[in-house]
Amino acid sequence: MSKHWIKDYLGVTLGALITAIGLDAFLVPAKIAAGGVSGIATILYHSAHLPVGVVMLVLNAPIFLWSALRLGWRYTVSSVFGTIALSVFVDLLAPYVPLLTHDLLLACLYGGVLCGIGLGLVFRFNGTTGGTELLAALLRSYMGINIGQLLFVIDAAVVVWAGIFFRSAELAMYALITIFLTSWIIDLVLEGVSSAKAFMIITKKADAISDIIIKELDRGATAWKARGAYTGQEQEVLLAVVGRTEVSRLKAVVRKEDPGAFIILADVHEVLGEGFKALEDKKH
């Protein structure tokens, strides 16, 4: 087994552990059924006292079988390890994880953050936890609908069911907050906090601006020819990626050299290469 596979399994295991803590310490005790298989398991835990992890595993079993028949075993196997790890951790830790708060808002926020971090790590290390993500992929193979839309419909149905079962619109609203927060944290873990800014500069003074970028900011720049669709005039486009602290300096440079330049500024979540993070070989 290569070191990449070992790293992936350790990452998925850690992610499953953090997710389980979020469920056991906050969401399940607070009756916050934040969609998906874990939400259904939370409802069944409070209605029939069934172990959350066991219910999650049982609910995932037919989804795995369906996935294997429809999408193939290779696609399905990648989900099995993360699902089993999460289910085992949830039930294993449940007797030992203390109830940290009775406040629903705190439970929803901290539970959402922990589950977001945990699931983000699982996805970052090439794993999944099965559940609604796998179910949405299956339904998409039949209907061709966007997976994001299907996930929202499935999660919303679980939240509505929980609200009706617990007779609390308030719990349903907290569950929605948790879903949005978890999704945001997952994206943050996968993409990272914006660490740099990308400048796309359409200018007639490309040589002068790129020279300053290279010599004064010690950054690289890429230039290519472009033609304005409306004016038909030839101009150059510069692409440069700089650190946050250099944004104001580069704006000032462009403003000074070419006040008529057109600038597009965008967040960059990860930059690999010279001057930034080292480019790693991620082949398995």
UniProtKB/TrEMBL annotation:
It is found in: Cell membrane. Keywords: Cell membrane, Membrane, Transmembrane, Transmembrane helix. The lineage of its organism: Bacteria, Bacillati, Bacillota, Clostridia, Eubacteriales. Coiled coil: none annotated. This is DUF2179 domain-containing protein. The keyword Cell membrane applies. It holds the Pfam family YitT_membrane. Its main location: membrane. One of its GO terms (cellular component) is plasma membrane. Residues 219-273 form the DUF2179 domain. It is a multi-pass membrane protein. The chain crosses the membrane at residues 49-69, 76-98, 104-123, 144-165, 171-190. Gene3D superfamilies: 3.30.70.120.
